Every structure is written in C-alpha cells, then in structure tokens.
Amino acid sequence: MAAKELKEFTLEDVAQHNKPDDLWVVIDAKVYNLSRFKDLHPGGIAVLADEEVAGQDATDAFYGLHRHEVLERPQYKRLQIGTIKGQKSVIYDEIAGEVSKVPYAEPTWLSPGYHSPYYSDNHREFQRVIRTFVDEVIYEDAQAHEEDGKRPSQIVFDKMAEVNLHAMRLGPGNHLKGRTLMGGIVKPEEFDYFHELIITQELVRIGARGYGDGLLGGKVIGLPPVLNFGSDELKAKVIPDVLAGKKFICLAISEAQAGSDVMGLQTTARLSEDGKEWIINGSKKWITNATFADYFTVGCRTDDGLTVILVERGPGVETRHIKTSYSTAAGTGYITFDNVRVPVGNTLGEVGGGIFVILSNFNHERWVMCCSSARSQRSVIDECLKWTNQRKAFGKPLISQAVIRSKIAGMIARAEGVQSWLENITYQMTHMTYKQQAQKLAGPIAILKSYSTHCAQETARDAVQIFGGRGITKSGMGRFIEHYYRTVTFDALLGGAEDVLADLGVRQAVRAMPKNARL
After folding, report:
1. 361-512: CATH number
2. Are strands 268-271 and 277-287 parallel, antiparallel or unpaired?
3. According to its UniProt record, what is one Pfam family this protein matches (predicted)?
C-alpha cells in the first residue's frame, strides 16, 4: 500500500479546526486529525476539546501525559494528515543501536567526548552491534512476554545462538574456542570480562526484569558448574544443546529452609545399593528458569557433606510456578525430587566437595548482578531527566524545583560510583586467574553487590517520588519506574542478601588483616 501523502498547513489553518466534530492538533510540527478518534480517546473528549488543545500546538500538553511511543503505534500514526509549513519535527523515533544523548543515561565511556582506560575500539564496536541486536531482536518480545508471563520466544533463543550470545554470557574461556562471536567482531581468545559486562548491561536496557531472568539467567549460573566440574562425557552431552538454546538448565540451591545458609540444605542424595546411582529426595524453591528447565544443577546433602549433582528432568522431578513480584516469564519455580535416580557420573566435582563448587560460582553470579544493577539505575536516570524536563508543575518544568534536582543528583552520584567500582573490579578480573579471583575478589564483589543494590533501592524510591502517581501505575508515563520499583528488590536478594554479603566482605577483610597492624 502506498504511503499516504501528507499536506502542509499553517498554524492558522489548524486553528480553524477546533470543534469536537472537526478537531485537529499539532504535535511536534505534525498535524493530526482527531475528529473520528475523540470518542475513543482514553482520557475522554473533554481533554481534546480544551481550548488549549483543539486547533492548537498541543506538543507540551501531549508529552505531559503520554510517552512518545504512543505516536509510533500504527493506529495513531494514521491519524497524521500533514505537517506545519516551515517547521521540522525535533522528536524522532528511537533508532536501533543508537546511544542516548541524555546526560548520565549512558556510562561515561559511551558518552561523546569522554574517555576510559578500560575499553578498546573493539569493545565500542562490540557494544554497537550488541545494542542493535537487543533493540531489533529482543526488545519487543521482552515487552510482550513480561506482560503475558510466557517464557521468551524460541526464535529469540535461536537468534541468540546464531551469534553465540549464550556462550558469551558465560564469560571468557575455552567454551568459546572455535566459535564465531557476533559475526566475527571479536575473536574468542580476545573476548574478556568487559565484553561480557557490555552484554549484560545492554540486555538490562529492555526494562523487563522477569523476562530478563527468563532469557536464560538460569543458564548463566547453572551451566558453569557443569563446564568447570563435569566429566568430559557429561559436558559433551549437555553443553552443546544448552549453548544452542535447544535445552535449558538452572541452578537449584535455595530451599524453603535454606536461602543464604547454603550449609543448611536439606535435599538429600544417597547412593543406590549397587553404587551406580544417586537417589535424590527433597525440594528447591525460588529457582530461576525451573519451570522450563531440562537440567537442574542441584545442591544435595550426602553422607560426606554437600555434593552438587546434575539432574535431568524425568520421573520424580516436578516443577510448578511461584508467583513473585515480577513476571512468570522468568520461570521461577518450586522443584520437588521424589526418589529421582541419577547416574553417579552426573556428580559435579568431588563427593562432599559441593561447597567449593557452589562458592566458586558465586563470584561470577554476583558480579553479573552488579553489572545489571549499575545499568538499570542509569535507565531510571534517563526516565527521570526526560520526565522532569517535559512535565510542568506550578507553571514551570518539574526540573526547576530544587528538591527534584537534589534527588536526581543523588541518583547520578550513586550510578556513577557503582559503575566506577564495577569497572575497577572487572579490570582486576581480566588480570587474574579464576583461583586468584576467588581469593582476592570474593569480598570486594560481595560488598559491591550489597552497595549497588542498596543504591538501586534508594534510586527506585526517589524515582517514584518524582513521577508521583504515575510511578505506581503499570501503564503510561511511569510504567518503567513502577516496574523498577516493584522488582528492584530481586537483585538485593538473589545471589545473597545485602546484609549477608556486606558481612562476608568485612569478614574477608578481617581475615586478610596483617598480624602486626596496630594504631
């Protein structure tokens, strides 16, 4: 169908159409005929018939009540009949891959005119391609399924597999050898933790917390124990299908009786009489991706202590949804194991050595969550700066109020501080072996996660105050703020509660105190 030809009008022309049955408005130099739409307007006819709207330039009025994305929808785009002669639109639809020009909406290294010692030209090109991929392939699916609660679409998993995103989300390592990463932009041997940081932070931009975890967050924490501690036979069976997005895996540690207290796990595994199988009984709770997982990396209590075992979905394994504050797209579930028989070859690491397997996984998991928290705080700053500049109160833009500027200053300070500390730790990771990271960074990462999620909750609270009623409304101007405020506590709990991690960091520091240190 040919595009509708748009005519040019003057503001005087538009002003003649100011009656309910003949109603035009101007929004950002575009002329819209709302005569037939008025009865469908969610806010009623009175809003459109107002003398400051009907036949007038209603740009400020529109953006005081609506997000720009409303104008992008086909049913509203077709209401445009022309443009204003001599004027040009200054507000445009988002371009896939584009970097925001809103101050502090991007990390410093992505902001024009700024520099960073951490990121190379390759990192910058990699970021551009990742952002474009997320905008074009993932964003719309995320918005749809965050709302309907269904897991991410298989086509998204497949497209991620085509560019080896599933593999890259596990960080640098031998699992990347021989793979073409994002069309060959980065070589497997050159992929580092800053590339992984970029992936995590770009994925967070979708603004859909439950869907984000459903985007195989369980794999990010559930597959590394197989990768690092599984037998060659087990790895050959499991890893290819999981990295291809054909099979799914999750980490099953938490229980109703044991959250941060890993040593308190009650799920048991005992050897069969012939010693060839584990027989597992127990339950797990709040497990990300559990409802659609094919494999479960399970922490069990055995005669020799804690042991981690890979369980394949089958007889005796049942899962069901747990409804939490975010979308069921995450697949958060309750798992029961009823006399589940598993080959002893599925043991990950040493029998009785499960605590080492579990703890070795925590550093990376918590670091990933710090990456997410840092970036999500910037998205809130972006929303708040846009809103306070376009929203008018008491006859002035909201940003003219000192108390509002103070809240935003706090948001900026927290986001910049978290990102800087995160990049420093990431730089250490690129120069340390996995063992050195476990020795040197467990404490710093724990405190960073505790601090970053605490900052995030402060930012969420302030953002709601700035948006007012819209900040607690699931649709409209404040929908991303409402969503953030409702789901921000997930990061504060998953991977270890704030207080527990803060204490861990200090205990690690005390352990490293020199014997001769005195005032």
Report:
1. 1.20.140.10
2. antiparallel
3. Acyl-CoA_dh_1
